[in-house]
Amino acid sequence: MSTEHRSGGRERGRAEERNTRFVRFAMSVAEAERLDEVYRKYMVYLAAGGALDGAVHRTIAQAISVDLARHAPKLARQLARARAGEIDASYITGLPTDPEIARGVLLVITYAIGYAFNFSTQNGGKLVMELRPDPNSSQANTNTTTDEFRAHTDDAAIAGSCRVGWILLYGIVNPPETVTGYAPIAPVIKRLSHRTKQVLFEKRFTVRVPVSFKLGDDIWTDPVAILSLSDTGATEIAWPSYATKPVDERDQEALDALAELEALVDQTMVHVPVDPGCMLAFSNVRGVHMRSKIGEGDRLILRTYARDSLADLREVTQDDGPIFDTQAVIAARLR
Ligand SMILES: [Fe+2]
């Protein structure tokens, strides 16, 4: 077999591995309709959103999981696989397109993955965040810019036990040629050189605290590692590509490691349009995401944040949630 053929096989292998961690799922019409029913049953609670206390949210999450398994079993199985760490991202199509129903369905699916929460200063501290570009925004790499929003994980400046675990994006309006990208980190790790991997596991980096946290526009964390291992042995990543630098800016080995990571992430990225009735639900710790430049016209994406547990957020903020004080969370990291 020629070298060309062998490398073709390798490429296919990589694509397959990427695809097993990034799964596409089309809802059947029947399941999508029954999803509406689940939403309607809980709409009074869901409409109250962040105004309800944490205990009510935990009760709702459990009840919804049971109902979802009964009414939309294929979707429930898919979400259970995500929760168990078997897949890192799910692109779900065929969901309701009506904006009000979408809001409720998004929360139903969020609760099936984990506990919905938000930070107080982010998007008005709402449980369901509205992402709209601002044509006058000059802030690069934020949700308001219409330019490309480069590869990143959200909230890398926050301690891992408080960081968003799952991000769910639900399309309401999406201009043509506007895509969201996701790269599971597992296949990237396998292709990184041994030395680069070692360097990325070392606390040789610092990341900038997002401006939206309102602590200042040039605050950087204490030394952090880009890669870490979870309790279950999965490699996790915390990396805003545009706001990460070596602690020692002359650390060429660290700079080279970041460049190698960025190149491999770009090659691995899978792009999908988050169109009306489409959802992209992905792990914020086992992969990296980005958004292309936004095409002509309006855009509105609904977003939720979820975690398996809110215990650490509750502890550092001394609040039951589900909306947590941003400054208390970031202060716990910077302390
Ligand atoms: Fe993001």
Bound molecules: fe (ii) ion
The total count of strands amounts to 16
Give the DSSP E fraction (strand runs of 2 or more residues): 15-25%
DSSP helix count? 10
* Shape estimate: globular
Cα distance spanning the termini: 58 Å
What is the CA-atom radius of gyration, in angstroms?
20 Å
Which series of helices and strands comes N to C? HEHHHEHEEEEEHHEEEEHEEEEHEH
| Unreliable spans | 1-7
Structural class comes to alpha+beta
Question: What does the average pLDDT come to?
Answer: 88
What's the helical proportion of residues?
Answer: 25-40%
Structural account:
This protein is an alpha+beta fold and 335 residues long. The chain is built from ten helices and 16 strands. The protein has helices spanning 3-21, 29-48, 54-71, 73-83, 99-113, 185-191, 194-200, 252-268, 311-317, 326-334, and strands spanning 22-26, 89-93, 115-119, 129-131, 149-152, 166-173, 180-184, 205-207, 227-229, 235-237, 244-246, 270-272, 279-283, 287-291, 300-307, 323-324. Strands 1, 2, 3, 4, 6, 13, 15 and 16 form an eight-stranded mixed β-sheet that branches. Strands 5-14-7-12 form a four-stranded antiparallel β-sheet. Strands 8-11 form a two-stranded antiparallel ribbon. β9 and β10 form a beta hairpin. The radius of gyration is 20 Å and the shape is globular. The termini are far apart. Fe (ii) ion (FE2) is lined by residues 152, 154, 289.
Question: Which short descriptors sum up this protein?
Answer:
335 residues, alpha+beta, 8-stranded mixed beta sheet, 16 strands, disordered N terminus, binds fe (ii) ion
